[in-house]
Amino acid sequence: MLITCPYCGPRDVIEFTYQGDGNRERPDPASQNFEAWNAYVYDRLNPAGDHNEIWQHSGGCRAHLRVVRNTLTHEISSVGFARGDHASAARRNAEDKA
Amino acid sequence: MSPRRTDTGGRIDRLKTIRFTFDGVAYTGHAGDTLASALLAKGVTLFGRSFKYHRPRGLLTAGVEEPNALVTVLRGEVREPNIAATMVEIHDGLVAISQNRFPSLAWDVHAVNQLGGKILSAGFYYKTFMGPVIGPLKGTHFWMFCEHFIRRAAGLGSAGPAKDPARYERMNAFCDVLVVGSGPAGLMAAKAAADQGARVMLADLEPRFGGSTNWSDETIDGAPAADWARRTVAQLEGRDNVRLLPRTTVWGYYDNNTLAALERVSDHKERPAKGEPRHRYWAIRARSVVLATGAFERPLVFPGNDRPGVMLAHAAERYANEFGVLPGERIALFTNNDSAYRAAIALKKAGAAIVAIADVRSDLSPEMRRLATEAEAEILAGHAVVATEGGKALSGVKVQRFDMVTGALSGEERNIHADCLLMSGGWSPTIHLASQAGAKAEWNASRQAFLPPKPAQQWPTQQWIGAGAFTGSFSTAEAIAEGRAAGLRAAGGTSPPAALPTVEAVDGDPDPAPVFEIRAKGKSFVDFQHDVTAEDVRLAHREGFVSVEHLKRYTTLGMATDQGKSSNVPGLAIMAEALGKPIPEVGTTRFRPPFAPVSIGSLAAERFGDLKPGRLTPMHDWHLANGATMYSAGLWYRPMIYGLSGETIEQAYVREAKATRESAGIVDVSTLGKIAVQGPDAAAFLDRVYTNMFSTLAVGKARYGLMLREDGFAFDDGTTWRLGEQDFLMTTTTANAGKVMQHLEYFLDVIWPDLKVHVTSVTDEWAGAAIGGPKARQILAACVTGTAVDNATLPFMGIVHGQIAGVPVMICRLSFSGEMAFEVYSGAGHGTHVWQALIEAGKPFGLVTYGLEALGTMRIEKGHVTGAEIDGRTTARDLHLDWMLSKKKPFIGSAMMDREGLIASDRLELVGLIALDNRPLNGGAHIVEALDETNPHGSIGHITACCYSPALGKHIALALVEGGKARHGTRAHVSDPLRNRFGPVEIVSNHFYDPEGTRMHG
């Protein structure tokens, strides 16, 4: 499997660490809503098809990426930074290359 | 008569003689021979005994699909079992032995199993050995009695106990076009792609490139096909953009065109060249893949089709044309298609008599009649072989008139005297790699074969282009045209192609008659290697196994080391007939990697032995030079003990721990994970990460911290030092350093991107030495300059900066041993310098070096936890660390840690144990309330760590036990039936030694 890291380019999956389901939404830290915490820690969709995932490029730039991967074919339809403000860095990077 | 070497012909070098042994008998062969061809040339027809019935078996094929002729190759003490003799290239000194026979191949006691054939049918083991005991000869207990004998009698070769001394390596390769298979299609594809300037890799599992050109008798561009192949290979060899990989089996096809291949680098040599590995594992990432893997010929299923001397037609053609070996003198053929007629001509030319060609079809084309006449063979159209005769070699066959529409036999049986029978049941494209790549095969009714799917049905991450027999195009002319087109497409080429090479060949009709089985009396084998007969398949059907996946598992059809390369389609056809359904409705099983057996060594490669990576502390060499026995912990190497001569491990650690508590000891703690946490929000971040407060920590002080996971379980512990307002140095356990780093990075990057914090792994930047004991402070005072180390300047958990022997050090007063102790950190490059200065300063005070064992002993005495207790299943409360759970702030895990199940009173809690019988305890041993050695049950917990405690003079342990504190002062028992250790223990507090901490506070 190849993941195209926005910083480093296409890299083999062995360079990455799976960091879990990208659909999780962490409740407010002070929240005592147990249902919400339980859903965040345990509930997973397990879809047969496109899945929103977090991967860390642990053997490279160590950025966390939001990856949409088809669980049936391993086709990756999109890769972006998991962290919002990384997007501007990627754009800059792309502009520098262009 | 018997098989023999022909005087001329073949791609072997008759001038080079090679000596080898098989079953202790010396043989000679020639350069270019396989073990199979060399033995066959010497008249050997018996190669092995079958899996279940111990029937004599000979060569069925000449290639990787061989199910019968499996041998064990011996290299010194090392045995490599289950290697197909057809894939072993002979070399001087080769030693091979046959398998699954006792006492010898020719005379085998288990051959008596043949008489019990009715009993040993499909499902025999399930029916006989499973379920309740009914009488003495049924049920699970009966299996336990029989297992030893059955395992001895059944099966294949056995591996030896010797360690494999061979070297294996792994290569990562990248190319534009990977071509798998080097027949005419593969060669054309590689050449076309290379001509476009693409980086090309061409792999073939055989030692000789060329595929069918090596034995086909065809001509290409007016020259023998083999010459054309040799010329083409020579053109490729000279190019910088081409890598040729002979003896390389591409065995796995994974996502994004990642393919796995095994190159047998030196198996064919008497000894490998210097530095040469035995096998090389190739991980190939290819932009495009051309599959030109050809096709496998199928056997026909009829009684006695497994007798030595019965062989696939093309295999005999290969033996004659490629190896110069005649598999028999009087050869009969049995076929359902035209391709066998080519074999008849080839063997006739090589000097054999073709006595008859039995063809299930009654209508033969004039072309085939002409070939049969040319081979001087009697044509038996509309006939089938119904029996074979002979023992360890074939003596004759019986034929009968056969109606291929009804399958009925009629008329008199007729005997034909023959010493070799060639059969051809049509061809199955080698679609294994395409199937691995996710493609569903499609049944083609005219080819009577599963063909690879159209490109549109391929998976998006595994795209390939097929060419030649792989696609069902069985003629060489088609292979050449498709190969070039595939190569051009794979390389993205557009240049106008020149004229294609011209082929002269006898092509015949590529479509066989739809006949797979001749139903007559006797055992007809479908899967030769697993001894599965046509009757077994029908029995499975009668017993209700309708799915092909169930059929496969019940009968074990196609589950042997050859993975059903020859048996898959005939087995399906018989099942389909039993079900009364067409073959495509029965479906086929998915092929999985590996395509052919792979050496485990090649998969381990450099992750094993000398090339395994290791992490060494800055003081590593000093430890070695000063008598340390090293212990490998993950990738790290750490001193276990510094043993004196004659000391046991226990004596050594007891001495080291005792001396530390009496005077002082020093230990290398450089392996602790160290993370610099810096930035304006560093303190706030640590408050969120740790269960306790860090924002209140004063600069120049350290604090012990505990982390939980999101689910509320304990994750890691360690001290974190505040070096500046925005500058913290976090330490983690050695084992969790990487995980904690990723944990911090995840939260900073994904959850809290607004926090202004940087985390940097600085584990390798610092050398650490922990020095503890009543005299530790005096030792520091003797060597530290630039700062005082007295209680006022350096209180418990205080940090000072100074110098030792002229280099800067940072000293923190904290204790793992329970003694007055200090951690001295210096730059990694100064590690040994500072360490030696501390040792020197400690001499007058009786300072000892101690290793992991003494470290562990002192921490058990103190009741501190490590990874053995923070095992992912324990909470802070279980470990009596609930005093660290801040109520003033949320932190990672705080929302989940108070769940019902995590605060239940029956959870396992940390306790101490003292052995009341004064014998050593074992890690992992269970604790029970009442002991019953014959029927161990009722575990209330288990031991996590144990030692002999010099401070207490007792064998002690830490344990996780139900109820925990409530049991303090009570008795229980260890119950460890595996190690036969039973005995009474007292449950006590985990703080065995100096629970008030007066020693470390001084």
TrEMBL record, chain B:
* Descriptive protein name: Sarcosine oxidase subunit alpha
Give GO BP annotations, semicolon-separated: tetrahydrofolate metabolic process
- Name the source organism: Mesorhizobium intechi
Q: Which Pfam families match?
A: Fer2_4 (PF13510), GCV_T (PF01571), GCV_T_C (PF08669), Pyr_redox_2 (PF07992), SO_alpha_A3 (PF17806)
Q: Tell me its family.
A: Belongs to the GcvT family.
Keyword Oxidoreductase in record: yes
GO MF, one term, reads:
sarcosine oxidase activity
Keywords, alphabetical: Oxidoreductase
What GO cellular component is one of the record's annotations?
cytosol
SUPFAM superfamilies attached to this UniProt entry: Aminomethyltransferase beta-barrel domain, FAD/NAD(P)-binding domain, Folate-binding domain
Q: Which residues form the SoxA A3 domain?
A: 521-606
The chain positions of domain FAD/NAD(P)-binding read 176-442
Report the PANTHER family cross-referenced here. AMINOMETHYLTRANSFERASE, AMINOMETHYLTRANSFERASE, MITOCHONDRIAL
For the GCVT N-terminal domain, which residue ranges apply? Answer: 619-889
Q: Which InterPro entries match?
A: 2Fe-2S-bd_N (IPR042204), BFD-like_2Fe2S-bd_dom_sf (IPR041854), FAD/NAD-bd_sf (IPR036188), FAD/NAD-binding_dom (IPR023753), GcvT/YgfZ/DmdA (IPR028896), GcvT/YgfZ_C (IPR029043), GcvT_C (IPR013977), GCVT_N (IPR006222)
Record domain Aminomethyltransferase C-terminal: where: 910-994
**Coiled-coil segments on the chain, per record:** none
Q: Does the keyword Oxidoreductase apply?
A: yes
